[in-house]
Amino acid sequence: MLGISRQLQTSRRLLSTWADTFDKYLMGAEPVVKDKHSKLLAKRGLIYNVEIQDVKPGYLSEYLSNAEKVLPDIHANEKLPVELYGQFNVQMGQLDRVYTIWRHSGGYADVDKTDLQLSKMMDYQQFVEQQGKLLHKREQQLCYEFAFWPTYDDYFDGGIFEIRSYSLKAGCLYEWANAWSRAVSLREKDAVMGLCSQIGDMYTVHHIWRYMDLEHRKEERDRAWQSGEWANLVIRTVPMIRNLSVNILKPADYSPLR
Q: Taking the CB of residue 139, how many other CB atoms lie within 10 A of it?
């Protein structure tokens, strides 16, 4: 009986530790990947607000024209703790979709401050209401940036971007990060950023890549697949995926990242 009691106590401690770790992850704590690579899962302090908006067919030009009048001013407003990282519309894939990515360098505190200040700006609220009439669907995700992705400072003028959005099975994020920390190092020159959701659709990961054009994309991907290490790492992650969508993006003229 004493042995059984000790086993139960040990099981309770393990369950409590696992539940505490999982709760911290869901609540936005910055988890650590613990294996031979030992990398932080998320870059400290950075939160990305990813807005995904599906525009009604025939209204994309009006939507982008409205955005051009407002978003650069938000980006330039030094009183707002937020910066526009980029805005892109889908050229191939799910057409009439727009991705707007905002970056908060001060974490969730900056998200709260930005929301509060924007709620008091009547011009901005009118803009949001106006844009909403042009949409048939919208969603928002607050994301961490994977720590192992290189910092992308090359604000390239031209070319295309690709966003690969993965819905992962629950419990796979650590293993995913471990595999991709090696895979991304093999293609650093094409890598822009990798994000994992904390609010919104959970277990969602976005990988963003940059190419000169579709032919350049094909050449870079073919070259990667010729590497046995890349192939093995990517194949290792396939069982973790529930769903994958791929879209080719065109940056807006006013997008800082373009």
A: 11
Confidence (pLDDT) at 45? 81
Low-confidence ranges of the chain (pLDDT < 50): 1-40
Place of tokens 């982008």: 64
Distances 30 to 18, 45, 133, 147 between C-alpha atoms, Å: 15, 9, 37, 11
Dihedral of the alpha carbons of 151, 154, 160, 165, in degrees to the nearest 10: 10
Which two three-digit tokens encode residue 194? 């990798």
| Burial label, 87 (beta-carbon count in 10 A; 0-12, 13-18, 19+) | buried
φ/ψ of residue 87, rounded to 5: -130, 135
**pLDDT confidence of residue 8:** 41
How far is CA 74 from each of CA 106, 153, 247, rounded to the nearest angstrom? Answer: 17, 21, 26
Residue 203, Ramachandran bin (φ over 0: left; ψ between -120 and 50: alpha; else beta): left
For residue 47, the model assigns a pLDDT of: 95
Q: Shortest CA distance to 49 belongs to which of 126, 138, 130? A: 138
Distance, C-alpha 118 to centroid of its chain: 22
> What DSSP state is assigned to residue 153?
-
pLDDT at res. 64: 97
